[in-house]
Automatic annotation (TrEMBL):
A family per Pfam: Ammonium_transp
Annotated compartments: Cell membrane; Membrane
Organism in which the protein naturally occurs: Corynebacterium guangdongense
Membrane-spanning intervals of the chain: 12-34, 46-64, 112-131, 138-159, 190-212, 224-244, 256-277, 284-305, 311-330, 342-362, 382-403
Protein name: Ammonium transporter
Presence of keyword Membrane: yes
Membrane topology: Multi-pass membrane protein
PROSITE patterns the UniProt entry points to: AMMONIUM_TRANSP
Keywords per UniProt: Ammonia transport, Membrane, Transmembrane, Transmembrane helix, Transport
Family: Belongs to the ammonia transporter channel (TC 1.A.11.2) family.
Gene3D superfamilies, per database record: Ammonium transporter AmtB like domains
Length: 470
């Protein structure tokens, strides 16, 4: 390898490691975002579901996830042999102890780390539809089974050389069987519109329907416990998304820069779109709406981050924010309890981003001079979105049915009414009713130097009283 190539590979490796860390940050950020939206009696449970997914998926990915997603022994183009690289054997170092080089010119272990973080956040997204009513043990088992049967196969089909990615077996070849110029029109999913957002949000919708509504839904649901945490979580998700989309260029180059820029302007435009929708529909913009709008824009640009211009990203983001704000209200219209608006934010915006990119894709979009190619791309993008929905929906329903019959999904009535945090985890996020400390000051000492303290056995109904003197 030439010195220039070595330097480029080192820079790309550094960028991918940073991107992997940024994407990993998104899971704790999602825990903040979801936890703040949940009632205070279930905040910790909601956050722990994200951390639980991180624990389960990290282990599973090393055991068979990488092999199923990116192995060479493909099974019908749907998934790869889970035992080919089981435990990452023959994936990290060669017989001489040297790190195996991946397709992008840097160590393959960096790709493993990067792709693992995508599997983690994809699984954690689903939990937002299940707030305040699901057994934690069942959720942990579901996380491992779902990522194995849904996420890994989709990653293989779209990114790992499976039936939705390889030119000879692409949907475009099957549908049209022709080429324009030198290349077949193939599906576009730059960073995970189908693999991550559509699949996870479809699973969330299926679980919301099968697990059932909270007993207080829709009129008795408590308000979000911590809106500042929601906004902080949204900000950290935005920060992490630069690694999510920018890292998907797999190099520190102009494409990564374009994806970075498109990510920011799409999120900004979507926030404005959501706030405008709230203002016109409900008479006022909210912090929750602004935070949700940012996420909607990030979801919308994910499949298109490297395939559209910044103007196209603004278009996708603004429309995605408006559509997601509208989609968040579908649960009230149809009566399903999607607790934290996963369907509106991730499914509606994800579908829009995956299909809508065909309108503004650079040079090939319907509105950017693509002509017949733009029409073909629109059909292809619609098909891959539907394939992801059907695949995830059917398998998720089967998983949910089996777990419902064996482990059970719902916590008891008392745990749901009084709070999962207390009944399941034996702790609370906000100690608002805990013991109050009062200082007793002896007369002989200055009032600024307390000698001791007395803990009351029951909390006071009012604020902490002033210090008393004997």
């Amino acid at each position: 390898m030439s010195p220039d190539a070595t330097m480029a590979a080192s820079g790309n490796a550094a960028w991918l490691l940073i991107s992997a860390a940024l994407v990993l940050l998104m899971t704790p950020a999602l825990a903040l975002f979801y936890g703040g939206m949940t009632s205070r009696k279930a905040t910790l449970n909601m956050m722990l579901m994200s951390f639980g997914a991180l624990g389960v998926v990290s282990v599973v990915y090393v055991l068979w996830g990488w092999s199923m997603s990116y192995g060479s022994q493909s099974v019908a183009g749907i998934f790869s042999n889970p035992f080919e690289f089981f435990g990452l054997r023959n994936s990290l170092v060669d017989a001489d102890g040297r790190y195996i080089e991946g397709a992008s010119g840097y160590a393959n272990v960096i790709d493993v780390a990067f792709q693992m973080t995508f599997a983690i956040i994809s699984t954690a997204i689903i939990s937002g539809a299940l707030a305040e009513r699901v057994k934690f043990n069942t959720w942990l088992v579901f996380s491992g089974v779902w990522v194995t049967l849904v996420y890994f196969p989709l990653a293989h089909m779209v990114w790992g050389g499976g039936i939705l990615s390889h030119a000879e077996f692409s949907i475009s070849s099957w549908m049209f069987g022709v080429t324009d110029g030198e290349a077949t029109i193939v599906p576009i999913d730059f960073a995970g519109g189908t693999v991550v957002h559509i699949s996870a949000a479809t699973a969330a919708l299926v679980l919301a329907l099968m697990v059932g509504r909270r007993r207080a839904f829709p009129t008795g649901i408590a308000k979000p416990s911590n809106l500042p945490a929601v906004m902080l979580g949204a900000g950290l998700l935005l920060f992490g998304w630069f690694g999510f989309n920018g890292g998907s260029a797999f190099a520190a180059d102009g494409l990564a820069g374009l994806a970075w820029l498109n990510t920011l302007v799409s999120a900004a435009a979507a926030m404005l779109g959501w706030l405008l929708y709230e203002r016109l529909r409900h008479g006022g913009a909210t912090s929750l709406g602004g935070a949700s709008g940012i996420i909607a824009g990030l979801v919308a640009i994910t499949p298109a981050a490297g395939a559209v211009s910044p103007l196209g990203a603004i278009f996708l983001g603004f429309c995605g924010g408006v559509l997601a704000a509208w989609g968040a209200g579908l649960k009230y219209r149809f009566g399903f309890d999607d607790s934290l608006d996963v369907v509106g934010v991730h499914l509606v915006a994800g579908l829009w981003g995956t299909v809508g990119l065909a309108l503004v894709a650079a040079d090939t979009g319907l509105l950017t001079g693509g002509g017949l190619d733009g029409l073909r791309l629109l059909v292809i993008q619609t098909v891959i979105a539907l394939v992801a929905m059907v695949f995830s929906g059917v398998i998720t329903a089967l998983i949910a049915l089996v777990l419902g019959r064996t482990m059970g999904w719902r916590v008891g009535k008392l745990a749901e009414s009084e709070g999962i945090d207390l009944h399941v985890h034996r702790e609370g996020a906000y100690d608002l009713a805990g013991p109050v400390t009062r200082h007793v000051i002896p007369r002989s000492l200055p009032v600024t130097e307390p000698e001791g303290e007395v803990r009351l056995s029951t909390p006071l109904p009012t604020a902490i009283p002033k210090m008393e003197q004997r």
